[in-house]
């Protein structure tokens, strides 16, 4: 019998992979990874080889006994896996560009995770993840699926509702970024910060914020109304908040809430950026090209510091930290996407939610958060409704269902505009939407 | 001991009152009304006398033994009342004009019932209704309060949560209008139509639609996508619906849903109307003035047919029909606003909802509607969140809570714009918002 | 195209059938029954012919154009049926005798509907009803299934959870008996009494009791503490209630609650009766034999008055009244067993409950009852847990699940005694429990 | 400003106190207790002095700087406390004897925590705990109340519902005993065992059982069917379980479940013991007397090993472990009684439940357990109904409510017997039930 863990990373050719490798190296003493399989599709072969060779140099450099395998054969990779991580992007960055630009053309925010762009990303991604689940069922039925492909909340719920894989966790770097942001703002170490996270992926709130177990929520809320001190992400411009609004809201919003509580202002800014210099996807594309140039350097054997500008800070770190806690039954608290089961009262029992969990060998166990404050219930349920309808559209390929999802999205101004945007986007992404082929005839 | 019922109508000087009187005359054989007290405030005295005198002529004309009393003394009126109906408007039509025009000035729909305008209407109205409740508790503790002052849903919930009056029903003419619309569309008698209503006031859906007990929902949905056949109200321009959207939505929306599923288009149209000819409030003001001219005619002793253009069609009819069914324990089905108690799963147990009820002497008993379809849950919960926060703001007079309500309203684009609109509206309505006097210093 | 309704009655050879026929005759003017098919099994052939011939004489006597068909071919009968009523008894009265006597032998109440006897009755009956559902799906997919085979609550829930038939109603004579009892107690006409029924079959409470829409609950509760005025059934000995207990309970219990709130006293009484004269099943058997002797009389062409002593008073009356209201979309209120969907908060959404419903052509629509009073929630949920486990045992034929159901029944004192009783009962009913054949090897 | 913690122990004269002192000594390095106030009532003065002097010797012996204060003045003790622990017993062991013996006299199990005896214990204890809460509100509003006075679940819920103290935790040694039992059974260290606890106090189940994060539930269930391997308590005789029953139940029951799943057998055994040698209370009384003899020994300066036979093993250990984790924000998992808030779906949101929690400085945060398995929902809800009615009786002193609680308890066979037992018990405990004085006139 072999010992050590087999890790499979689907979308292994991603620019994030060096961070993941760095994480597995760091934790190797009590997370005995034997082999890491980096899997990608034909179109990503070149990137897979570049980043895969860097990965090989990294493990060699530090001398840990991890084998790196590069393959386009997903089934071979999945066989007997212990953990499967997914970080693929159907249609790559070019698709993301369309997710952002087509809505903007019609005066609507694209918001590639839970806006119109996110709908199309879900339509492209969910059928692929369900294929992976079917293969896992056969080839590695006991493996855990750690998904960080966006829209991570919808992908997790699709797996929970439409596959036989129950061992799934969705992971996002937004909550960990919020913790890091608070630590920096208050000038304390990250380990001393704990946040009661509750909500949905990219729609998560800190219901309370603690340092050393003592609530500092009021202080954090007071500080972040200042745009200079706003806690945000690479890709979201901080605007600050109206102080009386945020005090009355009385919870700590995530950066993506700018899209909902400031949709008018965000739209204006994105339209301006779009006219001036293109979408975020184009910025990212440029960053990625630069990163891959660095990765090609045969003398490079560490994760290059430039990767942190990429916008996905902490993603891979969060993934390895999660796998480590699961493997060691560490019972520490981490925010992940998992089945609700009443952890957040008022959201569907069977739905995926993003919530602080105790991480055990048996998976994440959500901490009970109770009822959401009245003021945030509506928006959270709106996005959950959108997510559920979007998932159904992805699975059925039904045009009306997709139009329904688009129309009920809070960023979309009418059924008429929804139809215009949807039609143009379905056309643009046709190659990645086989389930809609009939609708699009 | 006196026999017969004492009815009190607060806001008795309303132009709707003749319809109410007509109703009580029509049902007099088994709804033995002994006296009707029309109550108004000093500012409405002239209108009260005009309409009150018409009411007296009406009962005299047909010879029913109903006494009409006109008074500015609300307490005297309430003493030993059996039913109290409320149709007052704090600040009268001038206030409604501001509710509509101030948001429009800032590019936002006013929507005087559950939009920014509705928030201010709630802030003005709720303290008055709670005063009335305190008086009822003392003077007529066994009376039923039948409220049709808008925002009827919020007013009902405010009574349920913040007063000791539990015998309250909120009434709206939207559902009855939808039934009438279906009857006309399908060319059948109104009595043959039954709709499973569920939702909130001005945010109600027909979950199913029946003629003679057989579902005709698909047919209705198919017909109303045509703007010519749309079922709407005097004050809402019909635009039709994207057919695939409505089929996927798979429920029968109310006219006010145009504000949410077509907010962009509605805004455009209202801005155009506003520039051209003012707000709906101004149109209504003109209609009212004409009506009161008619009412003054000492030879008039019936409800004049022109009243139906007023926009509040069926309001008083619905009120008398309700009181009649309650008094006679008729057990027929009518849609009203009442406490949820699980009738609509997923909405708060203690909240007011608009739902089909069996009308008994012991009050309305909601028919169980189960879970709302996924696609509509989010919007309904959003409006309910807005309502709950708005009610809290009305009761506490807290500025931040009012700003929170304004910001989370789906029609408002950002916390920044919310603050601009709110500040201007609080200023404009200052005379009717004593609870905010401290905030406004 | 044929006009008029086709009714199929499974278990048509029952002694109750004349009441059913009488009902269809009574309502014939607006419930146009064309044909009634009485279906039975080979073992019941003789009774089917006796009662069927009486049915034929009854319709002939009054001259209504209803055809009576007698058959052992269930599939032929079901073809194109409009309503299917089920009143069969697997194993006939002999089986009921065992359901009662075997537990008593071990010092435990049999309680043939939701006690140990009820468990075995469920195990025998549920597979048969699911067979009927499969046939209905094919032969009359639009028909309504009106079940009054006991245990009616479990049978209804089994159909809802384990068949594709959604048009099912479970019917019981207990609630109508409670209404009649109140009418008699207060000396008012039955039509003036309305009860808010909520609970489970044979575990239903009147949450409130009205005469002409005014609550008389306190009076009823006060009266029925007197055993002389207790409202009960032929088969349940009235014992009255401790007055302070019933006042604190503050709801109107059903006769079967004697088994739970007075289990000790009931057991004592049944043990005494058992020693003296056998079980209730034996009494019923004797009554039935006498009835069939009467039915044979070729000059008899009406329902004989002796039938009312049989204990199932109002059963068939309730059934025809229900079918009549459904067919005519009458929208009156009747208590039936149907899917909960939140009507009774705290009970499972998908479970069958017994609750006051508005009866429409589209089926029964439960009136929202809200949370059960705290004091009764536990017992109701206990019985529901028992029912759910019992149904699962009936469907799976799993011995452990059956033992679990038996042990958690509130009437059973221990897992040890449960096993003794279960083993003896499985053995005794072996012929009717094919799904347990493997367990019983 | 003083540093270090002030601990107050109400019922400080208990024989358990040395274990508590031992715990505070053990954890002193990172739980800086400055002073411990042992409080008792006049009747317990002698015991307080004996055990208090032992406590003083214990801290002196090891040289930790903890001051021990003995007092009968509760208010003086509570002033500025950080943690208040309650382990008092109203009426002392003599009262427990009556709780057990009076029901037995009438053929009913006393079960002093959630049976008839538990009802009377609740009636005596809850008014006292609410007095303490009122004093805490004034004298130490930021303190945590750690209650281990039984019935701990009812006491916790009474505090949550009827006091202004929200910082309350109920503690019991049953769950820790179950963990210890599993550890011993499987021969692993306690730290490797984790159980998903869910239910109520003395009605708690292990939904799953893990060693090193891997489920061993099936193995545990299989082992404990053997009475020799049953996990039980000093005061509950192990009887083993019917294997097929326990496998179908599929959760790990607590020792007190013997009273419910084996009530017949337990009753038989207790009646036998009662006739032979008296109640458990008498056995405990004898043990206590022996312990106090030991405690008097001025050379004794450690917790004597004989204390472990007392039956309350791990109680004080659990208490100190909990306080330690709270103080240090340890975030480890411990089972306690706390407000549900959806942690266990289907139980009331505001009720106390016993559930695995993450222990933080901000209190216990329940891990979400989801729906209880169908088979156990009924019994748990039955006991919760009983608890809620019992608490209401304790607070109101209403005789009918007390009779209702007694009658709905699953161990009580009828309203009639309930009344007999209740009347006798109210009489016997009259001195400690001032709120019932009116009823008992």
From TrEMBL, chains A, B, C, D:
<keyword id="KW-0326">Glycosidase</keyword>
<keyword id="KW-0479">Metal-binding</keyword>
<dbReference type="InterPro" id="IPR036291">
    <property type="entry name" value="NAD(P)-bd_dom_sf"/>
</dbReference>
<dbReference type="InterPro" id="IPR015955">
    <property type="entry name" value="Lactate_DH/Glyco_Ohase_4_C"/>
</dbReference>
<dbReference type="InterPro" id="IPR019802">
    <property type="entry name" value="GlycHydrolase_4_CS"/>
</dbReference>
<dbReference type="Pfam" id="PF02056">
    <property type="entry name" value="Glyco_hydro_4"/>
</dbReference>
<keyword id="KW-0378">Hydrolase</keyword>
<comment type="similarity">
    <text>Belongs to the glycosyl hydrolase 4 family.</text>
</comment>
<dbReference type="InterPro" id="IPR022616">
    <property type="entry name" value="Glyco_hydro_4_C"/>
</dbReference>
<dbReference type="InterPro" id="IPR001088">
    <property type="entry name" value="Glyco_hydro_4"/>
</dbReference>
<protein>
    <submittedName>
        <fullName>6-phospho-beta-glucosidase</fullName>
        <ecNumber>3.2.1.86</ecNumber>
    </submittedName>
</protein>
<dbReference type="GO" id="GO:0008706">
    <property type="term" value="F:6-phospho-beta-glucosidase activity"/>
</dbReference>
<keyword id="KW-0464">Manganese</keyword>
<keyword id="KW-0520">NAD</keyword>
<dbReference type="Pfam" id="PF11975">
    <property type="entry name" value="Glyco_hydro_4C"/>
</dbReference>
<feature type="domain" description="Glycosyl hydrolase family 4 C-terminal">
    <location>
        <begin position="197"/>
        <end position="412"/>
    </location>
</feature>
